[in-house]
Write a structure and sequence with these properties.
By secondary structure, this protein is mainly alpha-helical. The protein is 74% helix and 0% strand. It contains 19 helices and no strands. The chain has helices spanning 15-36, 39-70, 76-86, 89-94, 97-101, 103-106, 112-116, 119-124, 130-159, 165-191, 204-229, 239-270, 273-281, 287-306, 309-312, 315-337, 341-344, 356-378, 390-394. Helix 2 (39-70) crosses helix 11, helix 9 (130-159) runs antiparallel to helix 10 (165-191) and helix 11 (204-229) runs antiparallel to helix 16. The radius of gyration is 21 Å and the shape is globular. The two termini are 27 Å apart.
């Protein structure tokens, strides 16, 4: 394969430039919101947008390691896109800084005076304290970045003709995916579950992973269709590849629903106040409508559309479902985060509320994310041209 055959000329497409413009406008709007709105409104809205894009970056890292461990053929043509998503993790580490500065506005357990009068928080203070929280965040991003950068470096060496790196990527991915499973679980506990420090769920890390992977599959579906439409992946990806992406999207629709129901059922059956409060907050003051939207929009609708083989082989249907997945996963993060506003600030409005800051944070962080992702993707061939399985991947047929 020729490097030039799959080298995307970024100048012919305005994707990166447009993403950067949207990102800068969104960030300017965010800065204005910091001064014009209450601090907790700003930081909670920022967290919604941040977690949304971070989950795609982590999903890209998982896709890359899973590909190497399984030795799959069909996904070779998508590997470089997933690698480029993972390469945004260092950027997301930098964008975590506002969350570190807003820790008192987000996390109830960060206030010493609250811990002093709350016996439960005192028991959890060995884990939930500012110093250890920030140390863990540095460790997460440091090791995620190491995995992403090392796998990408080996991948580019393979393009240059080094045939030994395929084994190295597999050897790194095997322990890497174990660390990934542990770290994404603890990160979900730290960044999201500890927003309500009295609540706990041992399955929450799996719930977050399921949503992250669901969202990443939708992104790979949409972005590869964008490249294909612009004659960048026309020779490499066919309907067969989208059929396999669709099968994964369908499978993880069911998996997400299974994990979500398992969490709800166990909490309902146990009927422990420290656990049931999570759903009580999401079944009053308008939040019940979002809860029902998640049930029908995150599970029922995608299930009954993607269950059919013809739907997964129809690129138009796949594109619509990709956008729907993106929207519903954003709603899921909004549903997870925003009802906790009153925990950090008892005077805040608990009812369902939407602010322009939610759009600003999603657009601002997303614009920078997509710009950097595009820069990494277009710096090299958009498929691993020396991968020995590339030809089989391009000729892949579902049976």
């Amino acid at each position: 394969m020729s490097r030039d055959e799959f080298k995307l000329n970024a100048k012919n497409l305005n994707f990166g430039r447009n993403a950067l413009i949207v990102g800068l406008v969104g960030l300017i709007s965010l800065v204005a919101g910091f001064f014009l709105t209450p601090r907790d409104n700003f930081f909670f809205a920022y967290l919604v947008g941040y977690v949304f894009w971070l989950s795609i970056a982590l999903g890209g890292l998982f896709f890359t390691m899973l590909h190497h461990i399984t030795g799959a053929e069909w996904s070779v043509v998508l590997r470089r896109i997933a690698e480029s998503l993972a390469m945004t993790i260092p950027l997301m580490g930098i964008l975590f800084i506002p969350i570190a500065f807003g820790i008192h506005d987000l996390y109830h357990w960060s206030h010493a005076e609250q811990v002093a009068k709350d016996e439960l928080l005192q028991h959890k203070s060995g884990w939930l304290n500012i110093t250890f929280f920030l140390i863990r965040a540095i460790v997460y991003f440091g090791l995620w970045s190491y995995l992403a950068l090392t796998l990408n470096r080996h991948s580019l060496k393979q393009d240059a003709g080094d045939e030994t790196v395929l084994r190295k990527m597999r050897k790194l991915s095997a322990p890497g995916i174990i660390f990934f499973a542990l770290s994404i679980t603890f990160a979900a506990f730290d960044f999201l579950m500890s927003l309500d420090p009295h609540w706990y769920s041992t399955i929450f890390g799996v719930y977050f992973f399921a949503g992250s992977w669901w969202l990443t599959l939708a992104f790979l579906n949409l972005f590869s269709q964008y490249l294909r439409k612009n004659s960048a992946l026309g020779k490499a990806m066919t309907t067969e590849h989208y059929h396999d992406i669709g099968k994964l999207m369908f499978g993880f629709t069911v998996f997400w629903a299974y994990i979500a129901f398992s969490q709800f059922m166990l909490i309902w059956y146990g009927n422990i106040p420290e656990e049931t409060i999570f759903y009580k907050h999401r079944w009053e003051y308008g939040w019940e409508y979002v809860s029902m939207l998640l049930f029908f929009g995150h599970f029922v609708l995608p299930f009954f559309i993607l269950i059919f083989r013809s739907s997964k082989r129809n690129l138009y249907v796949m594109a619509i479902m990709g956008f729907w997945f993106v929207f519903m996963q954003w709603v899921d993060y909004y549903w997870l985060i925003m009802p906790n506003v009153t925990i950090a600030n008892p005077d805040a409005h608990h009812g369902l509320h939407f602010s322009w800051l939610h759009l600003s944070s999603t657009a601002g962080i997303g614009g920078l994310f997509l710009w950097f992702f595009w820069y990494r993707l277009t710096s090299n061939p958009i498929v691993p041209i020396r991968d020995p399985k590339l030809e089989n991947s391009m000729q892949f047929v579902n049976h």
